[in-house]
């Protein structure tokens, strides 16, 4: 199978254009032009092929397309965007790529995930990949995808949580579930009431968005010895759920409180003075 670096060809073409037209276009104009030129390039026949880059992949079978992607990665040839787009369009190709996710070919995974994105059949496999993934950036990408589609992996996350697998991450994923589930609410409340990670769990309750958490948050906000940072996160969660904390707490002497207000006071004074001067017409340019 002949592999073509179509994106590389386009880069050379556009570089030549920029060089020949130096000074004619601003950087912003060129940035606006490039996407449209790229689309034109995709539909322009290449003499040596007799077809355009887009048509080159469109004429391939599903199996050929998947094999082409694998060959590009295996041989270190840049993967053209036109190849990825054609793979995205075909359901059979997407299903084949899902099967490859758990095939142990680590170098293929970023390309496959970029192509599949939030494809429903891929999400359970992402959940399986996350615990063993060592590349932090790629792991975070997988986490973001499952969080954005948390309802689809809810049962998997609940099962993992029950077995103590990546508990904190499972709580984060469960907090992103949109359709209400008493099992999730009970877990988040239980963890909030029994964990030292007050800020994190209060944030999860805010994300989950169930106002039934308000009494638990308010009760926690009244606890003796509650650190200022924890109190602030709880107060934010209460407000995020449509509530309001009306109690009064004295945090003078708390190191975090003093630090925040030591830095915040001058700014407040500056803006206060600015507003007073503005009202009196005393602002000078």
Question: What does it look like?
Answer:
With 285 residues, the protein is mainly alpha-helical. The protein has helices at 6-20, 27-42, 53-58, 62-74, 81-89, 91-101, 109-116, 123-129, 136-148, 154-162, 167-175, 182-194, 198-208, 214-221, 228-240, 255-279. Helix 4 packs across helix 6 and helix 13 (198-208) packs parallel to helix 15 (228-240). The N and C termini lie far apart (69 Å). Mean pLDDT is 90; it is low at 265-285.
Give a nutshell description of this structure.
The chain is mainly α and 285 residues long. It is built from 16 helices and no strands.
List keywords for this structure.
single chain; 285 residues; mainly alpha; 16 helices; 65% helix; disordered C terminus
Shape: elongated
Gyration radius over CA = 27 Å
Count of β-strands: 0
Query: How many alpha or pi helices?
Result: 16
